[in-house]
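Lab notebook page, bench 4
Experiment: in silico fold of construct C2
Operator: M.H.
Input chain length: 278 residues
Purpose: comparison with the prior construct
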Amino acid sequence: MSEAYNPETEGAQMSFRDRMSYGDYLQLDRILGAQAPLSAAHDELLFIIQHQTSELWMRLAIHEIRAARAAVRAGDVQPAFKMLTRVARIFEQLNSAWDVLRTMTPSEYTNFRDTLGQSSGFQSAQYREIEYLVGNRNKAMLRPHEHHAEDHARLEAELHEPSLYDEALRLLARSGIPVPEEVLERDVTELHAAHPGVVDAWRTVYADPAKHWELYELAEKLVDFEDYFRRWRFNHVTTVERVIGFKRGTGGTAGVTYLRRMLEVELFPELWQVRTAL
């Protein structure tokens, strides 16, 4: 019988009294100590970890979207492609997480739902920041964050910055493709409304991909991201309906009815409309 493997014989560090360990670097004591169920229900830990890990992935998505926007603004679009691909894969990961949460039945959720109080996912400051970053700007959604000065200030500041989609349209214009002035000079704090002139601009790109390859690839990276983002919203709706039916949400929203309405929101409307125009 062979001896048990000992990594120390190959030079692996085994003592970390005076060295930084894996747990130290990742601050695992803080992360793994952040789950504090408020009930004795077995499934509350699943619910907490599902949402905490989602927030971690969203933090990375914000990091990547901000960098992609800066790259597009600078006209350095190649790095932006990699960042936007990563964001799409982040939302693919977030989509898979719903499969785990759906293992919780309505009976199991009922055992701890009352402990949530008025807390609700629609209050996520990071989710709101992602929407603001890419262009879905609803000023009314600032109010749930008024109690947290830092979050509110960050979201308020983001409202006054051109969104990722704004920067994409400005890049179109700088590349010599006509974009309506009222779109380029619009109040960026407001929600972008679909404009036929922007559809025409994207149609120019899609009509000759070889001539406008970087813009064409940027458009497809944006569509790819929104595709995964829409799937994430859809999975959210079906998971909520599966677990609570049509009850009102803990935060007071209409629950499934509210979430279904959000499915109709388009982040980059002209990029979807141009498919019909081609």
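Observations: The mean pLDDT is 91. The CA atoms of residues 88 and 224 lie 7 Å apart.
Next step: discuss at group meeting.
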